[in-house]
Amino acid sequence: MVSHKEAQLFYDHVAPRPGMSAVDLACGNGQWTRQLAAWG
What we know:
By secondary structure, the protein is an all-alpha fold. The protein is built from two helices and no strands. It has one domain.
C-alpha cells in the first residue's frame, strides 16, 4: 500500500490532474496505478 506520506510527496512534486497520462511499467503490484486512478 502507498503510505499517505509517499502519496503526498508524489502529489506535491508531480501535481497530477485529471486527464494527465501516466504509465506504470510493471514495477510492482500496481499500488501506484491504483493511487493515480484515485486522483483521476
